[in-house]
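[audit] Reproducing an earlier prediction to check determinism. Same input, same settings, fresh worker. If the tokens differ from the archived copy the diff job will pick it up downstream; this log only records the rerun itself.
[audit] input (267 residues):
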Amino acid sequence: MSNRAWMPLHITDYLADTGHLTAAEHGAYMLLIMHYWQKGSLPADERLIARIARMPTDQWAESRDVIAALFSDGWQHKRIEAELAKADDIIGKRKAAADARHSKSKSGADAVQVDSTSTDTGALPRTKNPSSSLRSDEAVAPAKPTPRHHLESVLDADHAEAVIQHRQRIRKPMTERAAKMLAGDLAKFPDPNAAADRMILKGWSTIDASWPDAWPGNSPRGSPPLRMDDFLGAVIDHQERQNAGPDQKIEGAPQALRSIPGGRWSG
């Protein structure tokens, strides 16, 4: 029978059936049902059953009938028999499924294995797969477009890679759809590679062909949003030129801030 490392224990049912047992009888009963689970039955000789229960002779004589009442005639245990049958059924189904997967995998590997028995005739090796890539007349499906594919339609390879890496740095990975839209916008610039450089330099995630190459400040609709590093840089630059301390109040808007499009002081 089955030799198993674990067995199911329905605690509620167990406690309902064994509430009358002493601590020693609980231990003996657990040893007996664990042996039953591993071996599929208990031995016919009750002296061996007592040894499995690890009870001295006088204790076994006192507790034998109480423990035996939890078994059927011949020390059979219907609940364990049912659980063993259930476990065997599950194991059988899992093994059949594993065998089926292995068989399918093996047949797939055999199908693409090259048959080299024709090499002595000078013919090309054949495969058992009728849709072999070795056939020169076989139609090849076009490769699926990728973000790099779209970008390289307007950028050189280095700039395409730089744009993809830039988007990764700002945690906006380049999808195929985003790359297609960006490629369309970049194509509208006289120098798409230069436009891509400016996008990376300014930290934008995309670019709009309506933005001029320089920021004139009078094009708020097409201008990119104000960036904090540009703003702080302009403030520091103004303070240095005015020889002002970092805590000194700045009256009015410094010219450096007016040059930042889309900001409070632009226009």
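[audit] rerun output stored. Observation attached for the diff report: The beta strands are 114-115, 126-127.
[audit] end
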